[in-house]
Amino acid sequence: MQTRPPLPRTVRLSELSPPRQMLVRLCQAINFGSLHRLTILDREPIFSPPPIVILELKLDSDDERRPEVDLDDFQVRDEFHRLLNRIDLFRNGMIERIEVRAGIPRRLFFQTIGAVVLR
């Protein structure tokens, strides 16, 4: 089994694998809401079958998009860094839910295959 070193504290979108880039972009597109039942296989998010996306729309104000949405490359936020490092520890399984606020993953709910302790 290949071990992946932890991501450096600063990482750019272009340095991520295509599935990880897709996860960042999906969170940006959700803006406010959640991503459900995302499969992780060999430390990579899998989008077939596609995860369920729940959008939250605020009716009392306009939701502003993340400024990075229109950029080809940018430094990913610390929350993505922590999420991707958790996926590296997680290895295989199902993320039940990722809560997204302002295009940033804020909370993670998951189950694992086998006995895995994430610390």
Walk me through this protein's architecture.
The protein has 119 residues and is an alpha+beta fold. It has one domain. Helix content is 22%, strand content 29%. It contains 2 helices and 5 strands, in the order H-E-E-E-H-E-E. The chain has helices at residues 18-30, 78-90; strands at residues 33-41, 44-46, 52-55, 93-101, 104-112. Strands 1, 2, 3, 4 and 5 form a 5-stranded antiparallel beta sheet that branches. Strand 4 and strand 5 form a beta hairpin. The longest helix has 13 residues, at 18-30. The radius of gyration is 14 Å and the shape is globular. The mean pLDDT is 87.
Main sheet characteristics: 5 strands, antiparallel
The total tally of domains equals: 1
Radius of gyration over all CA atoms, rounded? 14 Å
Fraction in beta strands: 25-35%
Low-confidence runs: none
Total of DSSP H or I helical runs spanning 4+ residues: 2
Say how many strands there are: 5
Report helical residue fraction. Answer: 10-25%
Structural class comes to: alpha+beta
Compute the average pLDDT: 87
* Cα distance spanning the termini: 20 Å
The ordered H/E elements are: HEEEHEE
User: What best-fitting shape do the alpha-carbon axes yield?
Assistant: globular
